[in-house]
Amino acid sequence: MAATPLYPEGFSTRRPRRDLPPRRNARGVTMPKTRVGPFARLVFAELGRQRMRYLDASELSGVQIPTIKGWRKKNNPGLESLSAMLATLGYQLCPVPELETLPPKIAGELTTLALKLRMNIPQTWTALLDIGVEQELLRLRAEERAAILADHDARMARGANDNTQRHAPAT
Questions:
Q1: What are phi and psi of 136, to 5 degrees?
Q2: What angle do CA 147, 153, 157 make, to 5 degrees?
Q3: 67-93: per-residue pLDDT in tens?
């Protein structure tokens, strides 16, 4: 039985790249020299390393060029635009706690579960979150059904055809 690694080599969820036409100016995006956050620094470093222009990144990610340029000096990237840019560059933003930061009992159970499922820790977290979301949706649906049934019972208590005079709407 082969050992399953607890962490994958990468979290890449690469979007399919379209073939970009060759450019005359091969200069890519440069790293900003002023105070830039770590995520924006990663975006600009990867844009430069992959020799991608703002236009290419914008077309592939859906984030507008002025938004990307704004990260260089004055704005911090939002979660949605940052996730889109990182996915375009071959990265995924996925906050996963380290096993060392978890209480020992939870870390042990999580490791055991990951080994039983033959998944790594991030995949196990994803599976657990999916199960939690499913349970929440089932609970909400049950509450919704209960509200519909209560409304139905209230209507039926009045009688199906009570022949009472209805008030005309005020005009």
A1: -65, -40
A2: 150
A3: 998 998 878 899 999 999 998 888 877
Q: Quick check: pTM over 0.70?
A: no
Q: Which domain CATH number covers 86?
A: 1.10.260
Q: What is the CA radius of gyration of the chain?
A: 27
Contact 71, 36 (CB under 8 A): yes
Structure token pair of residue 74: 């004055």
What type of residue is 33?
K
Residues 117 and 127 sit within 8 Å (Cβ to Cβ):
yes
Task: Write out the two tokens for 77.
Answer: 């990237």
162 belongs to a structural domain: no
Tokens 């080994």 found at: 115
The residues near 119 (Cβ < 8 Å, ≥ 6 apart) are 4, 127
> Number of structural domains, the chain?
2
Q: What's the Cα-to-Cα distance from 44 to each of 68, 83, 85, rounded to whole Å? A: 9, 14, 10
